[in-house]
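Sample 3 of the quickstart, ligand FE2/S2 (inorganic) cluster:
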Amino acid sequence: MSMHPLLRRRYRLDETPVPFVLNGAPETGRRGDTVLTAILSVSGRLRTSEFTGEDRAGFCLIGACQDCYVMLADGSRVRACSTALRPGMAFITDPGEMAEAAHE
Ligand code: FES
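Result:
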């Protein structure tokens, strides 16, 4: 698994920071980010496929394929490509932590 961010922010570098949590670590997105762009700006993957174990980064990016669902810390899921990042959102994309959250 690559830990280098898949996306590199090139514009809006001075946009308002939006704090969020990814697998327990504090991260920062920018106002106007989707959940997908915020996560992929700090991580090499969006989630791990529950079927193949492979890293996923979304597919259609327009809300049609459901490849980008990510789990929030409360156990709910959001479609990352079409959900706006909000301050304080906490995501679990690490497979070990996902299994732990599912049993809580
Ligand atoms: S990437 Fe296809 S629905 Fe989000």
